[in-house]
Amino acid sequence: MESLERLTALVEKELDDLGFELVKLDMASLGRRTVLRVFIDDPETGVTLEDCVKATRVLGLALEGDEIMPGPYNLEVSSPGINRALSKPEHFIRFTGKEAKIEYSGEGGEKRTAIGIISAADGAAVTISSGSEELRIGMSRILRANLHGEKWEISKRENRKKD
């Protein structure tokens, strides 16, 4: 776990120097290789493909120089997407008024899911409103959270094959 914290700190520092925010960092095994997925954002302007390429180059050099990754790995850098992860209290605060899906541990430790509008958030908890009901979830109980309900809409006319 210490190496994950060190890795996260290194990635955050490099991204901060570039003017990007680390939204989420995922590591997964893919055969003998590790896949390191880094999701970045610029809260003011969003990120472009060129931003992801630039961040990939800088992070690749930093990871190689630090030799923090044990064994072979693939580095993937991308934007958070339309159903972006909400992993920090600042994310919930920033997206107050948007719809979110939150998976959290219930009082008995069972996994629960809430979908609704983020009506309030602070460093300790987030409040989700669904209809007339409100649910306050402590940040420490959140297992996973994403913006929810954003859809790519392609009109039927655009989707039809051209004759």
Key structural traits:
163 residues, alpha+beta, GMP Synthetase, Chain A, domain 3, SH3 type barrels, 5-stranded antiparallel β-sheet, 3-stranded mixed β-sheet, 8 strands, 28% helix, globular, disordered C terminus
Structure description:
- The protein has 163 residues and is α+β, with helices and mostly antiparallel strands.
- The chain folds into 2 domains: 2-78, RimP-like superfamily, N-terminal (GMP Synthetase, Chain A, domain 3), CATH 3.30.300; 89-147, SH3 type barrels (Roll).
- The protein has 4 helices and 8 strands.
- It has helices spanning 2-18, 49-66, 89-94, 156-159, and strands spanning 21-30, 33-41, 73-78, 99-105, 111-121, 125-130, 133-138, 142-147.
- The strands form 2 sheets. The chain has a 5-stranded antiparallel sheet. The chain has a 3-stranded mixed sheet with strand order 1-2-3.
- A hairpin with a 2-residue loop joins strand 6 and strand 7 (133-138).
- Helix 1 packs across helix 2.
- The chain is globular.
- Mean pLDDT is 87; it is low at 152-163.
Measured as a percent range, the helix fraction is 25-40%
The CATH fourth-level homologous superfamily of the largest domain: RimP-like superfamily, N-terminal
Q: What is the H-and-E element order?
A: HEEHEHEEEEEH
Strand tally: 8
* CATH architecture call of the largest domain: 2-Layer Sandwich
Beta fraction:
35-45%
CATH class of the largest domain: Alpha Beta
- Poorly predicted ranges: 152-163
Could you please say which CATH topology of the largest domain applies here?
A: GMP Synthetase, Chain A, domain 3
**Overall mean confidence score, pLDDT:** 87
How many domains comprise the coordinates? 2
